[in-house]
Write a structure and sequence with these properties.
The complex is a heterodimer. Chain A is an all-beta fold. Chain A has strands at about 5, 10-15, 20-25, 35-40, 45-50, 55, 60-65, 70-75, 85-90, 100, 105-110. In chain A, strands 2, 4, 5, 9, 10 and 11 form a 6-stranded mixed β-sheet that branches. In chain A, strands 1-3-8-7-6 form a 5-stranded antiparallel β-sheet, with no helix packed on it. The model of chain A has no long low-confidence stretch (mean pLDDT about 90). In chain B, the strands form 2 sheets. In chain B, strands 2, 4, 5, 6, 9, 10 and 11 form a 7-stranded mixed β-sheet that branches. Classes of the chains: A mainly beta, B mainly beta. The interface of A and B includes residues 31, 46, 91, 104 and 105 of A.
């Protein structure tokens, strides 16, 4: 079983709509959680860190559910430029030196 | 924008050649990483470093080697390139204290093709 699992999608979203998707992680001792965005053939870029209380950055909202071991990302008022692959990232719980586990990504396609 | 650089951005090379992929960061980060990613596939960690003179192999077996002589520089070397090494190689760095995981910042990547 992979440590970080994501629905690969694609999630086809009309422009202006809301889309949400989850990611599950297997190790309950994980402490750090992030969402990255990766455009086709580009490097991953940090979208936001995920805090226990949940956090919002403009149209993006991230939530952490420790009891069920998942994190979520919600995108409101989707723009064409939001089309990308969104990577769920969790620290390796047994590693205290900064290694991260990357999910395979959820593809989002925003259509006009 | 993260200050992490990779050269070359694209490289096409013949089988058997020795190559070095360069990675430098100006953020003073002590931790650096190399990932390999095939198109449409997930990232795989191949090497990492906690600081100068520290290097470790990652989760994915790789025939490459790395060195960390200076904090800002983390080059990756392939002694004898093969077509199976064709991939995108991404370098990343992160800062922070020991025992705390901070976000990683990625360079633009080197797209390697071995013919």
């Amino acid at each position: 079983r992979k440590e970080v699992e994501q629905d690969p999608g694609p999630f086809n979203v009309p422009e202006g709509a809301t889309v949400a998707f989850n990611c599950t992680y297997s190790n309950s001792a994980s402490q750090s959680f992030f969402w990255y965005r990766q455009d086709c053939r580009k490097e991953p870029k940090l979208l936001m860190s995920v805090y226990s209380s949940g956090n919002e950055d403009g149209r993006f909202t991230a939530q952490l559910n420790r009891a069920s071991q998942y994190i979520s990302l919600l995108i409101r008022d989707s723009k064409l430029s939001d089309s990308a692959t969104y990577l769920c990232v969790v620290n390796e719980a047994t590693d205290s030196w900064g290694k991260l586990q990357f999910g395979a990504g959820t593809q989002v396609v925003v259509t006009p | 924008e993260a200050d992490i650089y990779q050269t070359p951005r694209y490289l096409v090379i013949g089988t058997g050649k020795k190559i070095t992929l360069e990675c430098s960061q100006t953020m003073g980060h002590d931790k650096m990483y190399w990932y390999q990613q095939d198109p449409g596939m997930e990232l795989h960690l191949i090497h990492y470093s906690y600081g100068v003179n520290s290097t470790e192999k990652g989760d994915l077996s790789s025939e490459s080697t790395v060195s960390r002589i200076r904090t800002e520089h983390f080059p990756l070397t392939l002694e004898s390139a093969r077509p199976s090494h064709t991939s995108q190689y991404l370098c990343a760095s992160s800062g922070g204290l020991a025992g705390v995981t901070y976000e990683q910042y990625f360079g633009p990547g080197t797209r390697l093709t071995v013919t």
